[in-house]
Design goal:
Helix content: 25-40%
Distance between the termini: 7 Å
Number of helices: 21
Structural class: alpha/beta
Number of strands: 25
Shape: globular
Largest sheet: 8 strands, parallel, barrel
Radius of gyration: 25 Å
Strand order of the largest sheet: 2-3-6-12-13-14-15-18
Length: 639
């Protein structure tokens, strides 16, 4: 793996933002001064809000008219929404107000925080990483030492014990899970993060609620207003008409996308688990209610909301109810609400759908940030095949997003790995997509002869044989196999594989995202098999607990962490790793994946065998930023 720098580069230090000082007459009492400042800030805040309302309300109204224009009380809906936004805006003080001002400045000068080269993220479960929110704040020195400036907390809001899909079945956005603390603890953690220049991301689960949410309880009780918050039918024929076109997301849980409620003698739409009831956004009351929850969460101190399962939020009969046109209209409406009430808030897309659909969510009017599931899946697929052709073609065809947006690139996360590459891209290379996915499933569950991976299947479909993959980064990359067999060659290959994957990922435009404990190369945790509430969900294989005591890791794990820390420092010190510009080289050697970031050329051999590549730089030679070795440009070089 080489990262080459060639040619002359210029560096400039960005001037600091102008500071505004309020000068008070000498001798003025502090109490009086405080009142004066707060009054002035409040007036400035109201003026800024009115300006944003004037600039964005027309666009918001157009989206809402497309969704709810036939509703007889449409103008009342607009009036109620304006009051919700005004109240939320008034509640933004201190650093939240500063975030809003910074966002306004970035719109003018392009200084988006998520395009900075030193922006490195981590996803973590609060309880597994630290215990609770107060203790999480105590781990900030560790995050700082690692170079983390963006933290995504897995679900923290209240959910039922047991049946909660890892926290994604929310009972209330106004209450934190008791084991994690309180809302005040969450506010405290958010404030501490901001003091140490760490951006906070939380999940916003808005496709569904828990069946124990207050809205669902009222619907169960027969309240017609709240029954209309969900899709509930007594007629099985109506259910079958919907199911006929729907894709089964969790086929091992139940067939179809509806759950029968024995007591109520009704069917309710549940795309995912039976206890996760899909919300009916065709009802404007749902939109208003969810807006209130969204703005409440934003004002807890959140920089980014990850819009969970956003592709499923709008339903229309006769369709697959996935990534429909009005899905985008609805997300745009939420974006304009945020732009008016809390412009410092960013949206992050979680759309695990066809690559051509993923990019449609990434734009200024919807989500400025997005998970990059294609990059993640194809990095693993290429590690298995050692053939970079599909990776290269897919990146060339599918990478492009608007320059003010950013991918969240990752190797592993809390979820499973789904093989989301395009069948069309595979066919262009003569690859049978179905057979390729079957191969990858066998490879990463260790069932393919010669596989280095140790993973488990997730949501195996008994009809199609399709599944997704669970496992930690280190176990999937071969370290578990090497340590189990005590094979030093396998161990060296696994460490080199892990280093290569992360070096390439860190060189790409966007935010490189670590999953907690992957920086320590932790192996699979099979203890979940013994816990009844987790044993049927293989994703707990990689949802590992962080141990803060004596470091008992193997030397290979420590070697990888040392390399990763060095990689983070290297990226943060090089301005050319910021921004969004990238050019993907055509394939010269099928083992090699390569791209250019202005004058930095990234060249990676995905195989264990020698390969060659010729760097197309204008200078005579390049220096490897990782090893310091010199390479000749425009000549085939051995990798």
């Amino acid at each position: 793996m080489q990262i080459h720098a060639s040619g002359l580069r210029s560096f400039s230090k960005k001037a600091s933002a102008h500071e505004t000082h309020l000068l008070l007459p000498h001798g003025l009492h502090c109490e009086t001064a405080k009142i004066g400042v707060e009054s002035l800030c409040g007036e400035v805040g109201r003026t800024m809000y009115k300006t944003r309302l004037k600039e964005n309300m027309s666009a918001l109204t157009a989206r809402l008219y497309e969704l709810y224009g036939n509703d007889w009380n449409f103008f009342d809906i607009l009036k109620r929404l304006e009051k919700i936004m005004e109240r939320a805006s008034a509640e933004r003080t201190g650093y939240l107000k500063q975030c809003d001002e910074d966002a306004a400045a970035a719109e003018k000068d392009g200084s988006y925080w998520y395009l900075n080269q030193d922006m490195v993220g981590m996803t973590l479960y609060v309880d597994l990483f630290a215990g609770n929110l107060r203790k999480l704040a105590e781990k900030i020195p560790y995050l700082n030492s690692l170079g983390i400036k963006y933290v995504h907390l897995m679900p923290v809001f209240d959910c039922p014990d047991g049946k909660n899909d890892g926290g994604y079945a929310i009972t209330s956005y106004r209450k934190v899970q008791p084991k994690l603390g309180t809302l005040d603890d969450l506010r405290f953690a958010a404030e501490e993060f901001h003091k140490h220049e760490i951006r906070l991301t939380l999940d916003f689960v808005f496709n569904h609620t828990s069946d124990e949410h207050e809205w669902a309880k009222k619907a169960r009780a027969g309240d017609p207003a709240y029954k209309n918050f969900y899709y509930m039918y007594k007629d099985k024929a109506e259910v079958d008409a919907w199911n006929d076109r729907l894709y089964e997301v969790f086929p091992s849980v139940r067939r179809g996308s509806f759950t029968y409620l024995e007591q109520e003698k009704e069917w309710v739409w549940t795309t995912f688990h039976p206890y996760q009831w899909d919300l009916n956004f065709a009802n404007p009351e749902v939109f208003l209610a969810v807006c209130e929850e969204m703005l409440f969460v934003a004002n807890l101190g959140v920089d980014t909301l990850r819009l969970s399962a956003l592709a499923f939020i709008w339903k229309e009969k006769g369709t697959a109810c996935e990534s429909l046109p009005k899905t985008h209209t609805l997300i745009q409406a939420f974006q304009y609400v945020a732009r008016i009430a809390c412009p410092g808030l960013q949206f992050k897309s979680e759309a695990i759908v066809h690559p051509k659909q993923v990019v449609r969510y990434v734009n200024k009017q919807e989500c400025t940030l997005s998970y990059n599931p294609l990059q993640m899946a194809l990095f693993w697929a290429t590690a298995a095949t050692r053939d970079t052709r599909l990776l290269t073609l897919s990146m060339q065809r599918r990478w492009a997003i608007p320059p003010h947006c950013a991918w969240i690139n990752y190797i592993r996360c809390h979820d499973d790995i789904g093989w989301t590459f395009s069948d069309e891209d595979a066919a262009a290379l003569g690859i049978n997509a179905y057979s390729h996915r079957q191969f990858l499933n066998r490879f990463f569950t260790g069932k393919f002869k010669g596989s280095f991976a140790r993973g488990e299947p997730f949501q195996l479909n008994p009809t199609t044989g399709d599944c997704r993959i669970s496992g930690t980064m280190a176990s999937l990359a071969g370290l578990e196999q090497a340590e189990t067999l005590g094979n030093d060659l396998y161990r060296k290959m696994a460490v080199a594989r892990m280093k290569m994957l992360y070096a390439v990922m860190f060189a790409l435009p966007g935010i490189p995202l670590l999953y907690a404990n992957d920086e320590k190369a932790i192996l699979n945790d099979y203890s979940y098999h013994e816990e009844p509430t987790k044993s049927k969900d293989s994703r707990w294989l990689h949802r590992t607990k962080t141990h803060w005591g004596i470091d008992e890791r193997q030397e290979a794990q420590k070697e990888f962490e040392h390399f990763l820390r060095r990689l983070i420092v290297l990226r943060g010190a090089e301005p050319l790793f910021g921004g969004s510009e990238v050019f993907f080289y055509d394939v010269q050697d099928s083992h090699v994946f390569a791209f250019r970031r202005t004058t930095i050329h990234v060249v990676a051999n995905f195989s264990e065998t020698p390969a060659s590549f010729s760097i197309g730089a204008w200078s005579e030679e390049s220096i490897d930023l990782l090893s310091g070795k010199l390479y000749k440009n425009r000549e085939p070089q051995q990798l």
